[in-house]
Specification:
Elements (H helix, E strand, L loop, with lengths): L11 H7 L6 H4 L24 E5 L19 H12 L7 E5 L2 H4 L9 E2 L7 H4 L2 E3 L4 E3 L1 E6 L18 E4 L3 H10 L6 E3 L2 H9 L5 E5 H11 L3 E7 L5 E3 L2 E3 L4 H14 L2 H10 L10
Parallel strand pairs: 1-2, 1-3, 7-8, 7-9
Antiparallel strand pairs: 4-12, 5-11, 6-9, 6-10
Helix pairs in contact: 3-9, 3-10
Length: 286
């Protein structure tokens, strides 16, 4: 996963206004046929809480993944995906419970109190040793975000970023992307959370930060003044996000089946087009 956006609640109204054409949970969760496997239907699926599908995500929850910091409203890419998956499993919106799960806690070893977590969590071999991942529901390129007029702002390729001082959040795939793809001459500065990372850019302690492209564009448009997305780049294997569940959880295969149906009937693509297209445009850095 990339860095988490800043917790500046005032800009959520701006982001929501920009996405005013998007609907509620009733708009994004259609009355579709539940997953076909009997063990994956409501009443047969072994969930954390009887009769309820418990979904975890971090707080605050920001656009374009969630709108108004309310995962339960069905608005935003990941909220819509979660409800669509639940629907395929036979759980209506009234049977979906949301739980706050800090990002770093989601993939820590141990028992989970949720059935799955959806939080832009990148599928990595290291994390997969402690938790289960579904098949990917989204693949995100990485992006370089900087302030106008900085050394990084004039870069047109990866080579032009070699002498830039980067800031990244600890434990993210963005740190791996900087180290393994950009390979800057200066060691990236690592910060504990997204607030510290973006503040470091604001006060020019670092010249650029790296995060996933949708988050970079959101930060540029709603969180930062005079900022620019230099461009996007791919990491080896792609930055694929999966639904996370407890290690060896029987829910995982059902999540795979639900996602397969959402891909087959085109619903996942519709959700992606609705919420992510405006957040996925930037020059390619090679």
């Amino acid at each position: 996963m990339p860095i988490r956006p800043l917790s500046l609640m005032a800009v959520l109204a701006i982001a929501a206004a920009g996405l005013s054409a998007c609907g509620s949970s009733s708009d994004t969760t259609t009355a579709s046929v539940p997953a076909t496997s009997g063990s994956c239907k409501k009443g047969q699926l072994q969930t954390a809480n009887d009769g309820v599908l418990t979904v975890g995500t971090d707080k605050p929850a920001f656009p374009p993944y969630f709108i108004d910091d309310k995962p339960s409203n069905g608005k935003g890419f990941e909220s819509a995906v979660a409800y669509a998956v639940a629907d395929k499993l036979g759980y209506p919106a009234s049977s979906v419970k949301w739980e706050i799960v800090p990002f770093n806690s989601s993939y820590a070893p141990g028992a989970k109190t949720f059935d799955f977590d959806i939080n832009q969590i990148s599928i990595t071999p290291a994390r997969a040793k402690a938790v289960n991942f579904s098949t990917p529901y989204y693949t995100a390129p990485q992006a370089v975000l900087t302030l106008d007029g900085s050394k990084a702002a004039s870069a047109t390729d990866i080579a032009g970023l070699k002498d830039v001082t980067f800031g990244v959040q600890v434990g993210t795939t963005s740190l791996e992307a900087v180290t393994n793809v950009i390979k800057p001459t200066q060691q990236p500065q690592v910060f504990n959370d997204s607030n510290d990372t973006v503040n470091a850019l604001k006060i020019k302690r670092v010249e650029a930060i790296v995060t996933d492209l949708p988050t970079a564009i959101y930060l540029r448009d709603a969180e930062l003044d005079n900022a620019t997305v230099v461009g996007q780049f791919n990491v080896p294997g792609g930055d694929q996000w999966g639904l996370l569940s407890e290690k060896d959880s029987p829910v995982t295969s059902c999540l795979d089946e639900a996602l397969a149906q959402l891909k087959s009937d085109g619903q996942l693509q519709k959700i992606t087009d609705q919420w992510m297209n405006s957040y996925a445009k930037a020059p390619e850095l090679k």
